[in-house]
Amino acid sequence: MKLGLFWALTATIAFSAPVQAQITVRDDTGRDIQLKAPAKRIVALAPHVAEMLYAAGAGERIVGTVDYSDYPPAATKLPRIGSYDRFDLEAIAALRPDLVIAWETGNPAAQVARLKALGLTVYTTQPNRLDDIPGQLERLGRLAGTSTTADAAATAFRQRLEKLRSTYGTRPPVRVFYQIWINPLMTVGGPQIITDAIRVCGGENVFGDLKQMAPVVSVEGVLAANPEAIVATGMGDARPDWLNDWAKWPRLLAAQRGNLFHINPDIMQRHTPRILDGAEKLCNDLEVARSRRPAR
């Protein structure tokens, strides 16, 4: 074989060999995250992150997560690396992850920075609007190589969200106080995804002008705002006793009309597809509040 023909054949073989395309996905901080191949060993630094990975079809690729990662049930069997606000860096490194998914406003920034300093690839999430969730599913699917499942979940989410928005978004507005906790008295501010859910339901967060994610407010502030409905979460599916404390204030519009509603925090305070279950419950509660308005 002539030398020129040999090199020509060699080059043809080299260029026709399958090449694994690099994956590039921009995270919620604006950083481009690059992987040479789909992630096979993922650490999730928040319960909602683990849940989102399962929804995106990547649950089997999670090798570690934090306390309270309990949905779907398979997540309860995953190895724990601490809590979302204090995780074990050595334990994470020992898992040899090719991808770590962090929560911008929930995880300690200093610890996340140390993970990056260790050379780990960190993708940061911060969905503040319901419309952010389907895009998040799609990006997680790209990172994990599970786009078929992730894209289908994203499409289903968008369709369901649009139905809620078209049904309730233009209804007469209801002023809402959303109560996370009693002591201290905590609510949600304007950037919080729950404020967006209230808006989708045709409601108005009475503390929506506050810039903090979870501001502490006063009873006097709530009374001055005089919401038409109070929605509380608490610690689970049981209605918290302190929700009924608002009945002590008979001049409060929500108390006058019996508009004191409870929603399980698992379906309202996690940035996952299940938040639409919470939003649907919220929309129904606000419809009840509208039905209790005096006839004109």
Listing every helix as H and every strand as E from the N terminus to the C terminus, the arrangement reads: HEEEHEEEHEHEHHEHEHEHEH
Sheet with the most strands?
4 strands, parallel
User: What share of the residues does DSSP label as strand, in percent?
Assistant: 5-15%
How many helices? 10
Q: N- to C-terminal separation?
A: 97 Å
The structural domain count equals: 2
CATH fold annotation of the largest domain: Rossmann fold
Bin the helical content: 25-40%
* CATH-defined superfamily of the largest domain: Nitrogenase molybdenum iron protein domain
Number of strands: 12
Strand order of the main beta sheet, please?
4-3-7-8
CATH architecture of the largest domain: 3-Layer(aba) Sandwich
